[in-house]
Amino acid sequence: MIDINNSKRVFKEYVSNYNLQDGKIALKVAHILRVSELSKKIATSLNLSEEDIKLAELIGLLHDIGRFEQVRKYNTFIDKISINHGEYGAKILFEDNLIEKFNVDEKYYKVIKTAILNHNRSKIEDNLTEQELLHSKIIRDADKLDIFYVLLTDDIKNTYGCSAEDMQNETFSNEIIREFKEDHMIDYKKRATYGDIWISHMAYVFDFYYKSSYIVIKEKDYLNKLTQKMNFKNPQTIQMAQELLQIANDYIKSKI
Questions:
Q1: What is the pLDDT of residue 157?
Q2: Weakly modelled stretches of the chain, pLDDT under 50
């Protein structure tokens, strides 16, 4: 049994231990609640059972539970200079036993843990069960859809760690450009500029699983708006940004 209302109450109690006036904490709470709702919508669009719809909603609620300690300890969302928030979230839930407070049947534990561990990996691990793979795909789509929303609506300082003025003057690394064009996958460890981070966000478009998600991206015009928000000033950066944007938009068309 999954009691979503109880799960939301427990989640609210958990985050109350952190400074909700902190912009990063407030951003993450709002993100999690939206992802939970998006996960529910994706699961519903796939005509899944009521059980799997509730499970998807719950995973959305739990997927970033490790973010709060990450901010408290390191004051950043950048995993490579702090902790892997997916792995840390799984630890909090299943080693520190936070999951017990959510009163969730143990039969769901493996699926929940697997989805959380895979939501922020470069790709989903192999040899998963059908249900584990399903929920890993749903949470990855829901998470990235809302990340686009956050990137558009929140301050660049919060989402990129630099000022809007600094971003305007950013450049791109040749290797990151190559990865976007050829591999459709970015090695985060190779990102050297804030502009590279923007490219890695644009590359999310290559990592969605469901047509409904691509339709949302197109209808919300996320990629064009995100490019405009960066307001790049360097002529070479502007030219390359438009080239990458075109590649991404063409890819969306191929998926719809």
A1: 86
A2: none
Sequence-distant (≥ 6) Cβ neighbours of residue 250 within 8 angstroms: none
Q: Evaluate whether 143 touches 119 at the Cβ level (below 8 Å).
A: yes
Dist. CA 230–CA 172, nearest whole Å: 13
- pLDDT, one tens digit per residue, over 79-91 is 888 999 999 999 9
Amino acid at 212: S
* Distance, CA of 161 to CA of 170 (rounded, Å): 13
